[in-house]
Amino acid sequence: MSLAPAGRPETRPARPEFSSGPCAKRPGYTLDGLTDASLGRSHRAAVGKAKLAEVIDRSRALLDLPEDWLLGIVPASDTGAIEMAMWSLLGDRGVDMLAWESFGSAWVTDVVRQLKLADVRTLEAPYGRLPDLAAVDPARDVVFTWNGTTSGVRVPNADWIAADRDGLVLCDATSAAFAMPLDFTKLDVVTWSWQKVLGGEAAHGMLALGPRAVERLESYTPPWPLPKIFRLTKAGKVNAGIFKGETINTPSMLAVEDALDALRWADGAGGRDGLIARSEANLAAVAAWVDRTDWIGFLAEDPATRSCTSICLRIVDPAIAALPADRQAAVPKRIAGLLEAEGVAYDINGYRDAPPGLRIWGGATVETADIEALLPWLDWAFATVKADILPQAA
């Protein structure tokens, strides 16, 4: 990599979108891909229902979802999907809540403070680590995030989940679906959104239910009232319409067309395995750079738990680590601001609740070449900020 006279790398990422949500659009994206959107038509008309059903069918095929699973489009993104599942399914037995980052902690708050379940065990770990997965009780329900979007820590596999479990496993997979292999034999509920690995637009969630979850829905009635948008049953049976494209509230047909555009691209990019390979290649590029760079490290302590989508980094430079906490926290924020001003990288500052650091989206819609072009700019930005901040500290 040759450097310009001012020290700036000459090669810039072709696309500077590295946000962890909404994420980069698929390569080659243009608004021309939305010209077939059924605008001005009811989503309950034949054309609208066909579009919604196509999103479901293509998503099912791309994930290789088992035939006996249901898949539907629900309101309020992944948050709406996981909330619907928790409010509709929990309370039948004790539940283990796993939390090691912001969103997992939010689901704990909902279960403890809003649902106020009597029998809740919270298994927590600080940012950078996983809780003790071996402590999960297969007789209890469990709620967890497959990938911690704000910590860059993922579960390495589903080996810790018992195949002969009695409880249900509810998995928030919003930044894992399409980028990490999900073992549906070990899961009962899986949720995600369009705006992560597929680079779609916000406001819509996907809710996948296995047969054990359907059985729970039809045999257990929660003791609390359920708002209309949370209701998954009708007359004691699962509401089949939700899983045929008959959404609970009005969807954006423009966003639906955008999701179809992403799903068609995904098929042409090698399907699920191709998307996983693209994400893992992005992680590998970052990991190789971290290995040869002395000022940066992964937030995830165990390499086996490093996320290939929400790649979270921490600054380990000794001189920066010696600064007061507020000055340390200013460094990644200033790096992110400098690179945004340069038009090199957008939205890479760490999540507001996470330890100070950088967060680079490595999902399948991001090209590895853009990741590789970004890395010298990170070195340049760090050197620039360090040279400015250390004299101030002195």
Structure description:
With 394 residues, the protein is α/β, with parallel strands linked by helices. It has 2 domains: 31-266, Type I PLP-dependent aspartate aminotransferase-like (Major domain) (Aspartate Aminotransferase, domain 2); 271-393, Alpha-Beta Complex (Aspartate Aminotransferase, domain 1). It is 35% helix and 14% strand. The protein is built from 9 helices and 14 strands. The chain has helices at residues 46-63, 77-89, 102-114, 211-219, 253-268, 271-291, 318-321, 325-341, 368-393, and strands spanning 70-75, 95-99, 120-124, 141-145, 147-148, 153-154, 169-172, 189-193, 204-209, 233-234, 237-238, 296-298, 310-315, 358-361. Strands 1-9-8-7-4-2-3 form a 7-stranded mixed sheet, sandwiched between helices. Helix 6 packs parallel to helix 9 and helix 8 crosses helix 9. The two termini are 33 Å apart.
Detail the topology: elements first, then pairings.
Elements: H1 46-63, E1 70-75, H2 77-89, E2 95-99, H3 102-114, E3 120-124, E4 141-145, E5 147-148, E6 153-154, E7 169-172, E8 189-193, E9 204-209, H4 211-219, E10 233-234, E11 237-238, H5 253-268, H6 271-291, E12 296-298, E13 310-315, H7 318-321, H8 325-341, E14 358-361, H9 368-393
Parallel strand pairs: 2-3, 2-4, 4-7, 7-8
Antiparallel strand pairs: 1-9, 5-6, 8-9, 10-11, 12-13, 13-14
Helix pairs in contact: 1-5, 6-9, 8-9
Please identify which CATH superfamily of the largest domain we are dealing with: Type I PLP-dependent aspartate aminotransferase-like (Major domain)
What is the highest CATH level, the class of the largest domain? Alpha Beta
Mean pLDDT: 96
Q: How many structural domains?
A: 2
Instruction: Give the percentage of residues in beta strands.
Output: 5-15%
Shape: globular
Rg over CA atoms, rounded to whole Å, is 22 Å
| Element order: H for helix, E for strand | HEHEHEEEEEEEHEEHHEEHHEH
- Low-pLDDT parts are 1-6
Give the CATH architecture of the largest domain. 3-Layer(aba) Sandwich
Summing up helix and strand content along with how strands pair, one would put the structural category as alpha/beta
Helix content: 25-40%
How many β-strand stretches?
14
Largest sheet: 7 strands, mixed
- Helix segment count? 9
